[in-house]
Design goal:
Shape: rod-shaped
Number of domains: 1
Strand order of the largest sheet: 1-2
Radius of gyration: 16 Å
Distance between the termini: 24 Å
Number of strands: 2
Length: about 45
């Protein structure tokens, strides 16, 4: 998603990771959310 929003793929890195246990599912199911960010890609005119 970061690249789709205009980030340079060479500079994208994970800035935040969140894991949330899903008590309503059997076993030890966990939802993992990661946020990525990067520098804006420069476009030549």
């Amino acid at each position: 998603e970061a690249v789709k929003a205009g980030a340079d793929p060479a500079t994208v890195h994970i800035v935040e990771i969140e894991d949330v246990p899903l008590a309503y599912l059997p076993g030890n199911a966990t939802r993992i959310r990661a946020k990525a960010a990067g520098d804006l890609k420069h476009q030549d005119s």
